[in-house]
Write a structure and sequence with these properties.
It is found in: Cell membrane; Membrane. The chain is mainly α. It is 68% helix and 0% strand. α9 packs antiparallel against α10 and α9 packs antiparallel against α12.
């Protein structure tokens, strides 16, 4: 059998193109894996910080035995939950029982796609970035409700209903605050998270939306705490009933996933507070780059990207510190007080803030 030289070259070029496609496919996975690794490290740091700050507020000793300064305590807890027995309720809906935690975790993880840590350092710079986050975050209560319903436990079901009612009550004021922020950017046919940050960078520190939208900032702050089910809004975890709410029947790694959802949601809320109100990655104070004197352009680019990530995380950890401090400062609210605050106070205030912002934008046109 004689093979023409042209056919051999064609076969070789085809095999090389297929190999390049596989290589490109692996390269596109690297940013996602890097993001997941960074999120995991951030969650471990947040757990350690909460334990240390809580111990300092209560004047007691925090974690100190697992690793230096107790840094490995969160890893030890996660490993313990991973190897614990996964107990399933005998009369529960097992498929829904297993899917519930996954839906809650995936909906929170997808929110990280539109969060910019630096200038164009974002996985998906979409023109509907903030609204995609609101749409995705609205899926998480479905997983919590599924978890409570499928447990075949009245207390779990009540906890799931409380979680869904709480999320719906505070999702609407939060959405109105986001609309008021992105209104100026919407007029240019974009509500990208990157565009929102760049719109605040024109006037430096005084260009932050914190000063333009102080009422919206307070409403967003309160709604974010309620969305994360943090004190004083942690009503789904009903300690007065001596149960853990919708996660009462869960054990092992599935219980750990709900624990993970709480801190992931807190991290996402902190990053969006930074992006929407605190100027994102902008330093907001003029500074002279040391590398600029030597015309090291590549080093300047790497330095600016690193500084952007550091500034974004620093501002996010400021919100984390506030939320952790509030946990040990304010008492828990009742369910009727929580719903009254959401529907009778925050909703009219956020709506009035949106109308006021809309009126000022129309006047300025």
């Amino acid at each position: 059998m004689i093979i023409d030289r042209v056919e051999v070259e064609t076969i070789n070029s085809f095999s090389k193109s297929e190999l390049l496609k596989e290589v490109y496919g692996l390269i596109w996975i690297l940013p996602i894996l890097t993001l997941l690794l960074g999120i995991t490290i951030e969650v471990l740091v947040i757990v350690w910080l909460e334990r240390e700050i809580s111990a300092s507020i209560q004047q007691r000793i925090g974690p100190e035995y697992a690793g230096p300064l107790g840094l490995l305590q969160a890893i030890a807890d996660g490993t313990k939950l991973l190897f614990k027995e996964d107990i399933l309720p005998s009369r529960g809906d097992i498929p829904l029982f297993s899917i519930g935690p996954s839906i809650a975790v995936i909906s929170i993880l997808l929110s990280f796609l539109v969060i910019p840590l630096g200038y164009h350092f974002v996985l998906a710079d979409l023109s509907i970035g903030v609204f995609l986050w609101i749409a995705i975050s609205s899926i998480a209560p479905i997983g919590l409700l599924m978890a409570g319903y499928s447990s075949n436990n009245k207390y779990s079901f009540l906890g799931g209903l409380r979680a869904a009612a709480q999320s719906i009550s505070y999702e609407i004021p939060l959405t109105f605050c986001v609309l008021a922020i992105s209104l100026r950017v919407i007029l240019s046919n974009s509500s990208s998270t990157v565009d929102i940050v760049e719109a605040q960078s024109k006037y430096g520190f005084f260009g932050w939306n914190l000063w333009r939208q102080p009422i919206g900032f307070l409403v967003f702050l309160i709604s974010s705490l309620a969305e994360c089910e943090r004190l004083p809004f942690d009503l789904p975890e009903a300690e007065e009933e001596l149960v853990a709410g919708y996660q009462t029947e869960y054990s092992g790694i599935k219980y750990g996933l709900f624990y993970l959802v709480s801190y992931l949601n807190l991290l996402v809320s902190s990053l969006f507070v930074t992006v929407l109100y605190l100027g994102g990655w902008n330093f907001s104070i003029p500074y002279i780059s040391f590398f600029g004197f030597f015309q090291m352009n590549k080093m300047v680019g790497i330095l600016e990207m690193t500084m952007g990530i550091f500034i974004t995380l620093t501002k996010a950890y400021l919100f984390l510190f506030i939320s952790i401090t509030i946990r040990w400062t304010l008492p828990r609210m009742r369910m009727d007080q929580l719903l009254n605050l959401g529907w009778k106070f925050l909703l009219p205030i956020s709506l009035g803030n949106l109308l006021l912002t809309t009126s000022s934008q129309l006047v300025s046109l």
